[in-house]
Amino acid sequence: MRDLRYALRLIAKSPWLSLVAVLSLALGLGANTTIFAFANRLLLQKPPVANPSRLVEIYTHDPDPRAALNGDYPLSYPDYLSFLHRAHSLSGLLAYSPLNQVNVVTAPGASTQPWTGELVTDGYFHVLGLHPALGRWFVSAEDTVNDASPVVVLSFAIWKTQFGGLPGILGRTVQMNGAPYSVIGVAPESFHGLFGGVECNFWAPVTMSDHLGEPGVIEQRAHRALLAVGRLNPGVTLAAASTELDMIQHQLDQQYPKAELATFGGLAVPLEAIPKPFRGSASSIVLLLEVVVGLVLLIACTNTALVLLAQALGRQREWALRAALGASRRRLLRQGLVHSVLLALIAGGLGLGIAELLWPLLIRLRPSGFPLAPPTGLSASLIAFTFALALVAGILFGLAPALQATRLRVLDYIKDGTPGSGGVRSRLRSGFIIAQMALCVVVLVGAALCLRSLARARAINPGFDTQHLVLVHDVSPQSLGHNGPAAHQFLLQVRQAVDRVPGVTAAAWIVEVPLQTGESDAMVLPPGASPGTHGEGYRVEVTSVSPNYFRASGTPLLAGRGFTEADLAAGRHLIVINENLARHFWPQGGAVGHEFTFPGDSTHPPATIVGVAANGKYHNLNESPRPYLYELTPIATPGSLMIHVAGSPASFLPAIRKQLQLLDPNLLSANIQTGAAFMELPLYTARMTSVLLGSFGILALLLAIVGLYGVMATTVTRRTREYGIRMALGAGSGNLLRLVLGQGLRLALWGTLAGVVLAALLTRYLSSLLYGMSPADPVSYFAAVALLIAVTLLASLIPALRAARVDPLPALRQE
């Protein structure tokens, strides 16, 4: 307690130095707390369910290295039922499918709101061991295709914000995609769904998939749309469950043969916040940000260490007297550490406040309409993390200055002499500055790489024209009451209505828009090719399109032609393949006119190639060219309408909305966006990393400037007498200016050299996040080094000017 009181007196005695130390450290701690909060939400935090360690994610696994999602595919609904009835290692099994947007009207006359939710099986909440905050869960009778009374469970947040938390919500009806759903329950406050980081507003039975935008889920065994989670029976290991699931999947492959499923097996993995197929990209981004904010914290620690070192060296005479009076070095060291830890804990509290300010800014980086959930306030784990990190930082930056300051030559101080340790002290200060500069170079190089990568990503051609494109998403004919042949007719009417807008040059439907997460694949072979040579076929990705697609999307055709209305009316099975697929089978050209067969798939008759399209980007902007196939079909399932316009896409939105309203008022709730807005999601990773690393780079640079300026200013103050004598002996102002600037520049050069080496070792792990460039990009290194040298000269200039204006007379009088 005496040490604590003494530390408080020291803070009061030097408030400005203490403020610099606390603010530097608070910025570093605030950045770390912010990123940790999102890492905790996305990767570390288990869902708040009963005994989550006994829950496992279940997939059908394809070992083919070319398979999408690393071969970990969701289940189809028929497969889910098979696993549910055959897997004895599981005490329960659930399946769910995230819904990006459902259009909801909460009361008559209210405006339409986009909600995110999950289609779930009836055992969803029971397997998770959750109890409703209000009402009840689904029952088996409601999980039937023919159920005539749709029901829904609301999230706690929606119940509170949209319905005032009133118990009368039970039995109330909300309009979802134009149909009434009866509210039967409210989920617990802590539960937000099973897909980490994504806010879930409601849960509906999976059998309502046709109406809520996922048609075909219930009937089609090849429609793998359901993420499955099972609870292990007592005593069953993960390996045993995987073995049983693998056996069941192979039985299903034999019972329901299909070439593209023949190599599948079953797989069980521990339940995490983000499902396994999507975990890799999220982990790499979060790890990168954790490393960067860790470096920023180290820079802040060196900054604070410099402040404490300056304070400690100013107290060495005091400490020498204490030692002469019997105080041990251990006692003095403890007193110094109490001071540094107290500063760190104050900074930790301030860092929590900074984190609360940064969370909304980080949320704003998300793409428009993306339901990213913010951290849920200051949890106990977050507060514990921040103060634990502050404690470690306090010991880290306080130990070296305290050790140096307590390395005393008592007699020299008592005699009022010079202890002779100036060289050691100077080397320690210089070492801190060099380390700070080196870390700053690493952060600046990473920021420069990501900023240049963002510019490259924006310049990547996705394979279609985004500059003249409007997209209408989430149009489900089934949800609007159109089924069977009427669904195709309705979508045709939508396309014709949009075609009537002046300035629209073409419009066409596509089932799975490139650069979105959806995908379908198939095995193809040209006639005469040996299945033995190509296995059971060549795996390609397939999407269904309507006539005029290539005009509407602006996808260039390298050979042949696109699809026409006459082709569709004639019922011909036609396809357009991309350049990558054409080169694989016909490297010399001439693919047009050939046929593809679909081995083992009776639903696909042989198809004639009528065109070859340019390669595009189908999953992300950083991918290598992959085989892709466009299939002409009478679209009758939910898809997206791609509209090519002659002018600014934003100016066409009101007219397109008006045409949709005239056709069906419920179409107003469709998600309409320009091509530029659509590209926000594919560019999200590049934009987020560049903005965050750029911000952290600026922060690191500011901290480095403050640290260098503090050292240079302290050095000039301590050497004022020396500078006066130099001037008295003939040195000019220019000599002293060059002397001080040279000292700062030498520190920066040594730090830059060390930083370039460290950056070369660390930035290679950025390669998966960079677009069209190498982590060893020389322009990024040059920009980072040049910026650091420039600010070094700026930070050294003011102390150098002070040194150049020293009056020699006081120094001579003292001599």
Query: Which word captures the global form?
Result: elongated
Radius of gyration: 33 Å
Total number of strands: 22
Number of contiguous helices: 23
Low-confidence stretches: 417-424
Strand content: 15-25%
N- and C-termini, Cα separation: 44 Å
The overall pLDDT average reads: 81
SSE-based structural type? alpha+beta
Q: What helical percentage do the residues reach?
A: 40-55%
Biggest β-sheet description: 7 strands, mixed
Record keyword descriptors for this entry.
alpha+beta, 7-stranded mixed beta sheet, single chain, 815 residues
Explain what the structure shows.
This protein has 815 residues and is α+β, with helices and mostly antiparallel strands. The protein is built from 23 helices and 22 strands. Strands 14, 15, 16, 17, 18, 19 and 20 form a 7-stranded mixed sheet that branches. The chain is elongated, with a radius of gyration of 33 Å.
Outline:
Helices cover 48% and strands 16% of the residues. It is built from 23 helices and 22 strands. A hairpin with a 7-residue loop joins strand 3 (90-105) and strand 4 (113-120).
Please write out the topology.
Blueprint: H1 2-13, H2 15-44, E1 55-61, E2 72-73, H3 77-86, E3 90-105, E4 113-120, H4 124-128, E5 134-135, E6 151-154, H5 156-163, E7 173-176, E8 179-186, E9 202-205, E10 227-232, H6 238-255, E11 265-270, H7 276-314, H8 316-324, H9 329-363, H10 380-405, H11 410-414, H12 422-459, E12 469-475, H13 485-499, E13 504-510, E14 521-524, E15 538-545, H14 549-553, E16 557-560, H15 565-570, E17 574-578, H16 579-585, E18 595-596, E19 607-613, E20 628-632, E21 639-645, H17 649-663, E22 671-674, H18 675-678, H19 684-718, H20 720-728, H21 733-762, H22 778-804, H23 808-814
Parallel strand pairs: 4-9, 6-8, 15-20, 17-19
Antiparallel strand pairs: 1-2, 1-10, 1-11, 3-4, 3-7, 3-10, 5-8, 6-9, 7-8, 12-21, 12-22, 13-21, 14-15, 16-19, 17-20, 18-19
Helix pairs in contact: 1-9, 2-7, 2-9, 2-10, 3-6, 7-10, 7-12, 7-19, 9-10, 12-19, 12-21, 12-22, 13-17, 19-22, 20-23, 21-22
